[in-house]
Structure formats: structure tokens, C-alpha cells
Amino acid sequence: MKIEFSKEEYLKLLDMVNIADWVIHSFTTGEGEGTREYRELQAKIFSFAQEYGLDDLVELFEGSYEPTRKFEDESPAFDFIEEYEEEVFWDELIDRLTQRDMEVKHGEDWLDEIFENEELFREYQDKLLEYEEEFEKYGLDRLKLLEDEN
User: Which residues contact 101 (CB under 8 A, 6 or more apart)?
Assistant: First the structure.
């Protein structure tokens, strides 16, 4: 199989591969378990940069093709990543606080019952909305840790 890309398409592919690499490796040091093949595929895709006249965006570093500083500075990939991480942060914070509150009120098994119990589901949705509105209005300004009572 052979796939042909325009220069613009190839540049977008570099961005997409860079985003994928960030998701896979951003919280690991060195090679994560089972990710070597992804890094090799990334290097293979990056190795074609010169053919597209984009060799200033990719460099050979320690035997592997890597994005250059120029690529990192000019690529919209990190804007997409930042936007994604911002949304994930708020969604996870709201969901985890809601789940915590529901567990405190209803016990550990509340989640097993949520889809069969309309009232419980509505309470969960209301609590989500309560946290969403709180954080939308105040951000983290009113989020405080309680002093240890001991």
C-alpha cells in the first residue's frame, strides 16, 4: 500500500503524530511499556520530512527522527493538547468530586445502582451541575482543603 500526501497534509500528519506521542509518553520517563513500536512509527513518519521540504522541522537525534524546537514552537499541536488537558482537568475534577460525594452519601455500591435508580441518577446529574456551575463561576478560588481534625 502506498499513501501520498500533499505538503500541507503531511504537516498535519506530523502534528497528529506529535499529539499522539504526547498522549502516550507525557507521563512516562524513557520508553513506556509497549510503546517502542509507536516511537518507531513516529520516527518513520518524521523521516520523510526532507522529501516535503520540511527538514527544518525534524532532525536526526541519537539515531531517531525527532521534532525540532522550531516544530514545537510553530506547531498547533501543543495548543490542541493544552485545550484538551484543560477540559479533561475540569471534567475529571467535577466527576471525581461528584463521585466522592455520592459515595459518602450512598456508600461504595451507589454506582452499581445508578442506571436502575432514576432518583439516584438525577441526584448524580444535579451534583455534577452544581460543581460545574461552581467552577465556572469561581474557578478554584473557593476550593480549600480542610484542616486535619487530629
Answer: 127
Please give the grid coordinates belonging to residue 95.
466527576
* pLDDT tens string 100-132: 999 999 999 998 988 899 999 999 999 999 999
Model pTM score: 0.76
Output b/e per residue, 35-69; b: 16+ Cβ within 10 A. Answer: eeebbeebbebbebbeebebeebbbeeeeebbbbe
Q: Are 81 and 73 in contact (CB under 8 A)?
A: no
Complete DSSP assignment for 1-40: ------HHHHHHHHHHHHHHHHHHHTT-SSSPTT-HHHHH
